[in-house]
Amino acid sequence: MSATIFHNPKCSTSRKALARLQDAGIEPEIVRYLDTPPTRTELVRLIADAGIEVRAAVRRREPLFAELALADASDDALLDAMAEHPRLIERPFVVTDRGTRLARPVESIDEIL
User: Fewer CB atoms near the end CB (10 Å): N or C, the chain?
Assistant: First the structure.
């Protein structure tokens, strides 16, 4: 099975998701999304494929979220902000042949393994 993880090695949840994939015998493609951020179009696809709302894909605890006054922002404004500032993207997204999940909680990726 092929898999891709949008990974931040500094994030414990992201590291746990990567370990879960590896424990399942999967060596995923690792996309360090802070270095190689997804485009806005890719974000739209990831979010839709994961079956979540745009707001669920935003790191609301990130200080930049408050600095940019995104609490009441529209989906379009949130997507624009995430595309411009990848620190705002919740992590990690995991994509396999069986689907896409935002690995929060990490166990949610079991559905696509």
Answer: N
Q: What is the DSSP letter of 84?
A: H
Give the model confidence (pLDDT) of 64-80 as tens digits. 999 999 999 999 999 99
Q: What is the pTM of this model?
A: 0.94
Residue 58's φ and ψ, nearest 5 degrees, are -105, 135
Are the C-beta atoms of residues 101 and 94 closer than 8 Å to each other?
A: yes
SS3 1: coil
- Cα gap 42→38, rounded to integer Å: 6
Task: For residue 17, give every residue at least 6 positions away whose Cβ sits within 8 Å of its Cβ, in sequence order, or none.
Answer: 5, 7, 92, 94, 103, 106, 109
Rounded-to-integer distance, Cα 23 and Cα 83, Å: 31
Structure tokens at 39: 């485009």
Please list the active-site residues.
Answer: 11
Distance between alpha carbon 55 and the CA centroid of its chain, in Å? 12
